[in-house]
Give the backbone structure.
Amino acid sequence: MTSQPQRPAFGTLLTSHMAVAHYRNGWSKSEIQPVGPIEISPAAHMLHYSSTCFEGFKAFRRADGSVHVFRMDRHIQRLQQSTRQLVLPEPDPAQVADMVRAVIQRCRDAVPEAPGALYLRPIIFGTTANIGAATTPTTEAMMIVLASPVWDYFAGGAKPLRILVDDQNTRSAGHMGVVKTGGNYAAALAPIMNARTKYQADQVLFCPGGQVQETGAANFILIREGELLTRSLDSTFLHGVTRDSLLTLARDMGYTVSERKFDVLEMLDWVRSGEAALSGTAAVLTGVGTLIYNGKEHPVADGQMGPITRKLRAQLIAVQQGDAPDRHGWLERV
Ligand code: COI
């Protein structure tokens, strides 16, 4: 067996430089600067009232050395939507794209070869120093684009996941699921930690009212021969760009894609012979091996990553890395 090189855990390694812009009556010109501590007031709006949002997407290095960023426009649109929902200053999409390109250009050597990628993380947060501004928006803000060389998100690589099905908690307030904001991740953390301790689960699948929704940091898809099923878009969960990409590729490959609500019982019935997987920029498409519901373990088919999950994952990665045609114009060379 060949040994895997030691790779840093997802998100722990940053590139040397970041792009930074400030907002006060308008966005400043952005600058590239070394990654390091930033100065904000301890009274900053974001620290007290969570006016903060982020994005996550990847750039890929090809064998010929060229670097290509995946669906940057869609992620920037989602960032704009998050700022509107949080009443943060909305960024100009062209400026965000330029900041991303500038970071990639400055840190080109840090873009890993396949199967690694450069994870791009724009963040926008409120910096107005006013601890009384609980019900008024920030008037000042910062935007930073960080970048991180990444490999697998889940520590076990492509090992099938153990997922706790939770029909008691919600991941976020109903209208906030669609917003990519830190508070949603904070809200999911205690249920995830309980699931880890009690069931050695990797993640929690939130199913408020018995309706399957999403996990703490990824969307959820049921898969079987010729068919995919996932929850239809509404404000309660994040509209994953990876979800959209996988559904599009599946349709291209002739699969029927159903987007509708479905409940826990239908899911448990599906996984007797079908497959289940988590999708996201970080997760890509990672197979689920076991669902744990009401203290009982339900193996997903034979408990291994399913063959169709593997095929869809491979197809997405092939497009991202330029090994399959980019029919939908998802990649930009930087
Ligand atoms: C992503 O897949 O980009 C995410 O946002 C997950 C992340 C919180 C690591």
User: Anything to note?
Assistant: Residues 56, 217, 280-282 surround 2-OXO-4-methylpentanoic acid (CB under 6 Å). Residues 71 and 329 are 8 Å apart (CA to CA). The longest strand covers residues 140-150. The radius of gyration is 20 Å.
